[in-house]
Amino acid sequence: MARDSLISHEGRVVSVKDDKVRVKIISISACASCHAKGSCTAADMSEKYIDALPGERFEAGEKVNVIIEERLGWVALFYGILLPFLILVTTLFAMTSSGKSEPFSALVSLASLIPYYVLLYFLRGRFEKKFLFKAERRPQT
User: Fold this and answer.
1) How far is CA 45 from CA 12, 25, 41, 64, 86, in A?
2) Residue ranges covered by each domain of the chain
3) Cα 62 versus chain centre, distance
4) Which of 17, 50, 120, 139 has a CA-to-CA distance to 82 between 20 and 30 Å?
5) What is the reported pLDDT for 93?
């Protein structure tokens, strides 16, 4: 697999259990590193935990890179943003074209996302098997 086709984030191992490594990554928006972040409410920084497959043996506290294939990022974008948007717009267009009022059409189109997200919830096991993160030791600098 080419190195260019991977998405990588630095993280720290929180725990190691059997065949999984729990890694804490800190997600920082672009403005979080700005010098004015103390007086600005736009700065965003959050901790996320990812279960990854270890490529080797790790210990808690060790710095690692969490990697995933770039194409899986595009697949996640499709299921998480694009497909719900298409469902919403298609339902809204169909409802307004059939002569329904705009507020009613908007409510129905929003409600049309409920079955989609319920389906995603029940298929989460399949997605966990498809979206495999891998942990690798950070190169020494």
Assistant:
1) 16, 10, 11, 19, 30
2) 3-28+43-137
3) 23
4) 50
5) 96
